[in-house]
């Protein structure tokens, strides 16, 4: 592995300028390494999603919205960290125009067990 591949800084302002993508994409993948997949997303509301095969983290960096999950509605806003287990139904809605998040997929398909063992 080259030295330049070992450490990277991803700058929010620089990355946001690349969205929308050439085909109108609302997100851009920044890093894929092993099971780790990181993107910056500026989703439109409502953000209809299918359950994901991997565990997922959202780091909300701008704005606020509503996370729908398990029959609950929770407000999420800048500074919040959201964990979504693999296969869990969830949606984002009520997003402002400035809503921005880092999206991180990681781990094996089906997610990690609560004890750290793969399922």
Describe the structure.
- The protein has 119 residues and is mainly beta.
- The protein has a domain at 33-108: Jelly Rolls, CATH 2.60.120.10.
- The chain contains 1 helix and 8 strands; from the N terminus they run αββββββββ.
- Strands 1-2-8-3-6 form a 5-stranded antiparallel β-sheet. The chain has a 3-stranded antiparallel β-sheet with strand order 5-4-7, with no helix packed on it.
- A hairpin with a 2-residue loop joins strand 4 and strand 5 (72-77).
- 15% of the residues are buried.
- The model has no long low-confidence stretch (mean pLDDT 90).
| CATH class label of the domain at 33-108 | Mainly Beta
Mean pLDDT: 90
CATH topology of the domain at 33-108: Jelly Rolls
What is the tally of helical segments?
1
Cα shape: globular
Secondary-structure content class: mainly beta
Strand content: 35-45%
Spatial gap, N to C terminus? 30 Å
Q: Do you know the CATH architecture of the domain at 33-108? A: Sandwich
* Relevant CATH superfamily of the domain at 33-108: Jelly Rolls
Major pleated sheet = 5 strands, antiparallel
Quick structural overview:
The chain has 119 residues and is mainly beta. The protein contains one helix and eight strands; from the N terminus they run H-E-E-E-E-E-E-E-E.
Which labels suit this protein?
Jelly Rolls, about 120 residues, mainly beta, five-stranded antiparallel β-sheet, globular
How are the elements arranged and paired?
Elements: H1 12-16, E1 27-33, E2 36-41, E3 55-62, E4 64-69, E5 72-77, E6 81-84, E7 91-93, E8 100-106
Antiparallel strand pairs: 1-2, 2-8, 3-6, 3-8, 4-5, 4-7
């Amino acid at each position: 592995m080259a030295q330049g591949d070992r450490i990277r800084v991803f700058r929010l302002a620089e990355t946001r300028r690349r969205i929308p993508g050439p085909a109108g994409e609302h997100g851009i993948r920044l890093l894929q390494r092993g099971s780790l997949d990181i993107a910056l997303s500026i989703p439109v509301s409502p953000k209809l999603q299918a359950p994901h095969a991997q565990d997922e983290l959202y780091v909300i960096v701008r704005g606020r919205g509503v996370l729908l999950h398990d029959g609950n509605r929770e407000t999420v806003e800048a500074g919040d960290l959201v964990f979504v287990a693999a296969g869990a139904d969830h949606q984002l809605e009520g997003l402002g125009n400035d809503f921005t998040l880092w999206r991180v997929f990681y781990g094996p398909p089906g997610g990690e067990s609560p004890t750290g063992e793969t399922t």
